[in-house]
Amino acid sequence: ADPVSLPRLGPGSMGGMLALPQGKGPHHVGCTDVMVGHTRQGLFLHLFYPCLLRAGASEPLWIPRSEYCAGLADFALRRRWCSALLSITIGSCRVPVSWNGPFKPHSGGYPLIIFSHGLGAFRTLYSSVCTELASWGFVVAALEHRDHSAATTYFCTAEAGREEWIPFQRVPQGQKEFYFRNKQVHQRAEECVRALRLFRDIASGRSVLNILHQDWDLSVLKDNIDLAKAAVMGHSFGGVTAVLALVKEPSFRCAVALDAWMFPLENLLYPEVPKPVLFVNTERFQTPESVAKMKRLSSRNSRTKIITVLGTVHESQTDFAFLPGKLIGRIFGARGTLDPNEGLAITSRAALAFLQRHLDLEEEFDQWDDLLEGVGDSVVPEAPFCRSNL
Questions:
Q1: What is the pLDDT of residues 320-375, one digit of tens each?
Q2: What is the DSSP letter of 272?
Q3: What is the mean pLDDT of residues 60-69?
Q4: CA distance linking residue 30 with residue 38, whole number of Å
Q5: Which of 46, 145, 186, 314 is catalytic?
Q6: C-beta of residue 163 within 8 angstroms of C-beta of residue 156
Q7: How far is residue 263's CA from residue 176's CA, in Å, rounded to a whole number?
């Protein structure tokens, strides 16, 4: 349903091989990890934000710890022993942002995006799109879900130094996939809602302890986020999570769903989606059933848009698109034919135009409004099943 692709381990591919682009917007981007609470009911997220330039700032690792390589190997290859190879190959890749960089204040407050990852992914695997959005003046909170859909994740218990890991879980034998995934999508959407509430607490001046980095003080966000301008976004399983979050939380004003995997959402809920959604699909992933569900939403809400980026596959909307080389053993199917930088530009510009429109932003993102109608190079309206030329 939702594979994640991994690189072929070729000679000369050690370290530094991931070429994630820097944000194209006017702001430098910083990031930090935020974990609140000592139980599963807390939250874990990677925060991207406009930051001030600081000499000697370090860049964070793309794969934050070796446990995530093990989780990826187990999820994508069903071979945990590959994790050492993955560690060697991608373990030293870095993201071109300032780790714990000083937050850049903004008197009007930045709009907020809560981002939800796909199945078998985790909080850092969408750094390219999150960095791009932050560079245009958004605070982006990329969640790491605790519903057993992440490749792996953890929380820190109240006992000093003790971590509890939450592994990826496949659909149990004998259980219908829909019921298993439906329960997960509800938990994921609730985590998105809790994340929004977390920022509400910070904005109201409540003291919120980040148990990972006491040196990066969450209170700097207090007067710098505009909670009247909050959106929810995600890829694949995260795309449908974003749609459901609109139902659960009226404060989210719109959703951007990248190649949404619509399967886990019960039909009963489609009439309940009150706000506009931008569906940005890739050329190869969607099924007629999934697109029919998107069209149910667009037929009820003229502000909901569906576009398809030609020359792209499901992984084109993740950071994996920026890994060079062939995919391991070609297990994961075709690579997109569209240059990943081009794909990222189309996806992020369409998102920015949509967010300007529905968050009432006073920016110049409307210069990309044509993309919302599927007008432009490598983009078409709706979902053209007959056109695939990959």
A1: 888 876 543 333 445 789 999 999 999 999 999 999 999 999 999 999 999 999 99
A2: G
A3: 93
A4: 25
A5: 314
A6: yes
A7: 12
- Cβ-contact 119, 263 below 8 angstroms: no
Q: Minimal CA–CA distance to 260: which of 302, 331, 299, 308?
A: 308
Active site residue 259: yes
**Least confident piece of the model among 4-18, 173-187, 348-362:** 4-18
As a whole number of angstroms, the distance between CA 325 and CA 341 comes to 16
Structural domains of the chain, ranges and CATH numbers in brackets: 29-60+95-381 (3.40.50.1820)
- Angle in degrees, CA 36, 237, 132, rounded to 5: 70
Q: Give residue 302's pLDDT band: very low, low, confident or very high (50, 70, 90).
A: very high
Closest CA to 261 of 283, 282, 286, 297: 286
Beta carbons within 10 angstroms of residue 135's beta carbon? 20
| Residue whose C-alpha is closest to residue 284's, from 345, 337, 350, 349 | 337
Candidates 98, 127, 135, 236; catalytic one: 236
Q: Are 47 and 366 in contact (CB under 8 A)?
A: no
Q: Which of 79-83, 279-283, 357-361 has the lowest mean pLDDT?
A: 79-83
Active-site annotation holder among 33, 74, 147, 259: 259
Three-state SS letters, 344-358: HHHHHHHHHHHHHHH
Exposure pattern of 160-184 as b/e (b: 16+ CB <10 Å)? Answer: eeeeeebebeeeeeeeeeeeebbeb
